[in-house]
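Protocol step 4 of 6: record predicted structures for both targets in the notebook before any analysis. Target 1:
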Amino acid sequence: GAVHVPLNRRASPAELRYQMVETAVAGQDGFVVDDCEFHRDGPSYTVDTLAAIRAEHDAATLCLIVGMDAYLGLTTWHRWTEILGLAHIVVAHRPGWQPPTSGMSSSTRT
């Protein structure tokens, strides 16, 4: 069902993102929202999260869903090349998002 955040409680950005993803995949077979990053001390990197999930579920097909804006910055992520070996990258369109008009190579623009 829908996720309800009481008005008297302000969710942290991480909690809010978690709730939005949980709401988005509610009722969708095969989707799992994992909160392991909330329990990790220090910085939390996508590559570490994917490696931990891969260690737990070796045979599972993992997909990392990111918006085009995040995908365009993928090469700046911590140990980004390892991510490509851990999960399929699924790029989603974020409603209202417009690609930058400068700073992109012609091979990046579609």
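Target 2:
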Amino acid sequence: DVRFITQGCVRLRYCLAPDTTWSLPAPHQVGFAVSRRTGKAVERNRIKRCARERYRHVRVWLDQMLNDGGHQQCIIMVQFFGSFSDIHRAVDRDVDRALHQLGRRIVRSH
């Protein structure tokens, strides 16, 4: 059951499961993808680095939300589909908002 959250230039796809469904090495797995239409590889890699940094800041909080929500595992895919000029707005605001919205949905789903 894959669900998604869209915030500005970011689409976050996620799937929640109880502890016994998957054998993941961590409470959640996260992937980052950037459309080729965004720009050259250097620009796409910079966007992914910035998105990973924003995720790193909320990772512990997201772990807590998973435990509070009764879910033990989560697979998350963060997709960026804007232009390279949107990078600062998307990373600073949209990734952060999408991950916080995911945390609230996890707690509500319990």
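Step 5 preliminary note on target 2. The first strand starts at residue 3 and ends at 7. The longest helix spans residues 41-68.
Proceed to step 6 after PI sign-off.
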